[in-house]
Amino acid sequence: MRAWEVAEGFGRDHLRLVERADPEPAAGELLLRLRAASLNYRDLMMVEGRYNPRQPLPLVPCSDGVGEVLAVGAGVRGFAVGDRVCPIFAPRWLAGEPDRERMRTTLGGPLDGTLRERMTIAAEAVVRPPEQLSDAEAASLPCAAVTAWSALVEQGRLRAGETVLVLGTGGVALFALQIALLHGARVIVTSSSDEKLERVRSMGAWETVNYTREKAWGKRVRELAGDGVDHVIEVGGAGTLAESLRAVRMGGTVHLIGVLAGGEASVVLAQIFMQQVRVQGVLVGSKASFESLNRALALHRVKPVVDRTFGFDEMPAAFDHMAAGAHFGKICIAIG
Ligand SMILES: NC(=O)c1ccc[n+]([C@@H]2O[C@H](COP(=O)([O-])OP(=O)(O)OC[C@H]3O[C@@H](n4cnc5c(N)ncnc54)[C@H](OP(=O)(O)O)[C@@H]3O)[C@@H](O)[C@H]2O)c1
Prior knowledge:
- By secondary structure, this protein is an alpha/beta fold.
- It is 29% helix and 26% strand.
- The chain has helices at 41-47, 100-103, 135-139, 141-155, 171-182, 194-203, 217-224, 241-247, 270-273, 287-300, 315-324; strands at residues 2-6, 15-19, 29-39, 64-72, 84-87, 118-122, 126-127, 163-167, 186-191, 207-210, 229-234, 248-256, 278-281, 306-311, 330-334.
- α5 (171-182) links the parallel β8 (163-167) and β9.
- The chain is globular, with a radius of gyration of 20 Å.
């Protein structure tokens, strides 16, 4: 089978398409023929050595994908050849709270990921994506959509009528917009692009702010919402946290998810305690979270936003496309 590896050092220029032996399913495992994968910003950081510089190489990048069951290992019940499944991001985190042990084995680093034609995976570590989704759409769910769901719905207990601020128009951001709308929330979106802001308005965003033009976007958002938003989907990190803390209402929640604008922040702590703000770290989610997300997406026939689907041979270009930041939603890869 063919697989993409980052080998002999980090960097997009070290991505290599290689031949590897076809894997065989052990007892309790499924053998999958992968049909599609999707990129997360984490994958770009991983390939560039910015996520974990001590990650052993070679590594097959990417945590997200969808595949068809090709063979079923001994003792596996409930799956048949031809079933369509998505591996979960952290194969040992099935339900409940995360712990270090469960999070030590995640796909696309430290474990080999989904940029390959075949993979084996424990049968308990897959979910069935909603049937109405294409392969590219299904492949976009495991990290970005589960993260947005676990932030807003599971940890944030989002309620109808609340206001959510979503930063940017990347993968996590657009899932957060869709999930917030599904729950009857009012959504404000920021972006560097007026054209992208037009697109989120057509998806149902209530208000929009161009964060490159409006440097004090936190204050602007606070005013738009009345006296601050109930939830912030914080994907920017160091470069955006101070404005996010201006945008949130007293007693509201900042869901700390990403580091698109830097990973080390200096924070005015009074901005947090004087407003009794809840700063909640989010780390994707469990299999149980993924399954409840899928039920909601299937029932409401929500379609993930796929920016573009690249061919399996075009991986360096797909990563370059993500690095350029011009995408809207998910970047996907068709495999086989
Ligand atoms: N904690 C977790 O469990 C978890 C899970 C998934 C992702 N993440 C993290 O969350 C972040 C987003 O991931 P992703 O895969 O959704 O990324 P992505 O699709 O690459 O998002 C890129 C978009 O983010 C926006 N952006 C960039 N810098 C920004 C800034 N300074 N302010 C506001 N928006 C900005 C831009 O939107 P515009 O072009 O509209 O300006 C850009 O197009 C990453 O840091 C990732 O590592 C964490």
